[in-house]
Design brief:
Length: 335
């Protein structure tokens, strides 16, 4: 994994620690353990970083998101140490485990650096027809909807959400796949017993600050202009799973059963990893596709626009909390 230190962000007085998940998510990437002299240098570099005090972790996942950051000019590298290269267990067995990769990377970030909070931004699909390309969602709750329990055929529908495959047969009829029930996650928090949770909240204090942001989003990129200016939407729900969702019926099911407005692969893992030690976290997701049923103009034309808009809101948030006096506490606020 690669980390870039940025001090003196142009629109952000708070020192930010930028951390990329790109190498963990790259297919087929493997990282050999460094030789001892290289490890000694890494330890020396980490010591320099630690002496600068607590930092924010800015976490992203894909090339477009990193490209938007590099091209933005919002941050400038710290001349004394612009980059630190770390090593992580990125191998073929983890290629298709995006939530696991995200969790491992964020945990490494928390363990290695003095982090006062995590700001996560990226792209997402929309499962809410009121949200379209370029819009940015700042969810209040996220859930991992990729954990299922298969149920016997013709099992009675329970009070919790259950997907019955026969309801989607064409023509109508029984389906031997039966149905599946969505599982809760086991959350282990410092000083608390294990609890089963489905919804994971972002930090409430940070969310309230984000609600006050005034950000004008971009309507055009180099190749395309949207018919209207995108908007920032607060307080919705997000869904994460270890798959890229491109199915109109399933996106409708998620919206109908859980009320989720965006779907992605990392947000729930990032929020759960930071919730356990009590570190503040917030999520900004730009809509890059409609998770199935796109119009004739391809959403790939707008992927970078979604990344740019999500980054704009994230940077404005970082600038705002950087002006807070006293700074936001490392302790997580009560949700």
């Amino acid at each position: 994994m690669a980390m870039a230190l940025c001090a003196g962000a142009r629109s952000c007085p708070l020192q930010a620690l930028l951390f990329s998940l790109l190498l963990l998510l790259a297919a087929g990437s493997t990282a050999a353990l460094p030789a001892q002299p290289a490890m000694d240098r890494v330890r020396w570099q980490l010591g320099m970083v630690s002496r600068r005090g607590p930092s924010l972790g800015l976490v992203m996942s894909y090339v477009d998101e990193a490209t938007a950051l590099q091209a933005s000019g919002y941050f400038t590298p710290w001349p004394a140490l612009p980059f630190v290269d770390l090593y992580a267990p990125a191998n073929k067995r983890l290629q298709n485990q995006v939530p696991l990769n995200a969790a491992v990377t964020v945990q490494t970030l928390i363990d290695v650096f003095t982090v006062s909070g995590i700001v996560h931004y990226g792209t997402a699909g929309s499962s809410n027809d009121s949200m379209s390309f370029g819009d940015v969602s700042v969810p209040k709750l996220v859930a991992y909807t990729g954990a299922w329990t298969w149920k016997k055929f013709k099992s009675p529908k329970e009070s919790s959400a259950e997907l019955r495959f026969e309801e989607y047969n064409i023509p109508n009829g029984e389906n031997l796949l039966g149905s599946l029930k969505f599982r809760n996650e086991e959350l282990y928090s410092v000083g608390k017993p294990m609890e089963e949770v489905f919804w994971l909240p972002v930090d409430l204090a940070w969310f309230k600050i984000a609600e006050q942001l005034k950000v004008k989003l971009e309507r055009c990129n180099n190749t395309f202009c949207l018919p209207t200016t995108p908007k920032v939407v607060y307080g919705l729900k997000g869904s994460s799973a270890d798959m890229f969702l491109d199915n109109a019926e399933y996106r409708k099911f998620l919206f109908r059963e859980f009320g989720v407005s965006t779907v992605d692969e990392e947000s729930a893992a990032v929020v759960m990893t930071t919730t356990s030690p009590g570190i503040p976290v917030i999520v900004f997701r730009g809509v890059s596709d409609l998770a199935g049923g796109e119009p004739t103009w391809s959403s790939t034309n707008l992927m970078n626009l979604a990344s740019i808009n999500a980054l704009k809101v994230a940077v404005e948030f970082i600038a705002t909390i950087g002006k807070q006096k006293p700074p936001i506490s490392v302790q997580r606020s009560s949700n």
